[in-house]
Amino acid sequence: MPIFECRALEKRYGAAMALDHIDLALEPGRIVGLLGPNGSGKSNIGDAIRWVLGEQSTKLLRGNRMEDVIFSGTKRRKPSGFAAVTIQLDNQSGLFGESYGETIAITRKLYRSGESVYQINGKAVRLKDVQELLMDTGMGRDGYAIIGQGRIAEIVSARSTDRRELFEEATGVSKFRYKREEAERNLQAAQENLVRLQDIAATLEGRVEPLRQQAEVAKQFLKLSEQQKKLELSLWMQQLTGLDQEKAALRDTLLQARGNEQNAALDLKQADALLQEQYREMQQTTVRIQNLRESVQQAEETAAQTQADLAVCANEQQHNEQRLIQVAQQQKDAAAAEQTATEQLQTQQAAIQTLQEQKATAVKACQEQEQFQKELAKQLAAAAAAVKEAETKLRTSYGNQNHSFARAESLAAQIETIQAQTVSQTAQAAALQQQLQAAAETEQQTIDAVSAAVEAETAVRVALEAAQQQHKTLAAHLEQQQIQNAQRQMQLQTAQQRLQLLQEMEHNMEGYAGSVKAVLQAEHGKPHGVYGTVSQLLTTESRYSLAIETALGGAMQNIVVADETAAKDWIRYLKTKRAGRATFLPLTAIKEQTFRESAVLQETAVIGLACDLVQYDAKFQNIVSSLLGRIVIAENLDDATRLAQRYGYRFRIVTLDGQVINAGGSFTGGSSQKKGGILTRKNEQLALQQTIQQLQEQVQADAEQFRQQKAAVQKQLEQVQTLQNQLHHEHAEQLLAAARAETAKKQSQQLQQQLSERQQQRKQLSEQVAALQQQHATAKAEWERVQADLTALQAQQQEAKQQQEALSAEQAAVREQLTTRQIAAAKLEQAYLSQQQQIAEQQERLQQCRQQKQQLTEAEAACREQAVQLQQQEQELQTKLTTCREQMTQHRKTIEQLQRIHTEQEQRIRQQQEGIRELSAARERAAAEVAQLETKQHTLEQQRDRIVQQMREQYDVTLSEANQLAEPISNELLAKQQLETLRRQIRALGHVNVSAIEEYQEVSRQWEFLSAQLQDATQAKQELEMLIVQLTAEMQRIFTERFAGINQAFQEIFRELFDGGEASLSLSDPDDVLHSGIEIQVAPPGKVIKNLIALSGGEQSFVAIAIYFAILRQRPTPFCIMDEIDAALDEGNVRRYVQYLQRFRDTTQFILITHRRMAMEAADALYGVTMQEDGISRLLHMEQVQEAEA
Question: pTM of the entire structure?
Answer without folding.
Answer: 0.40
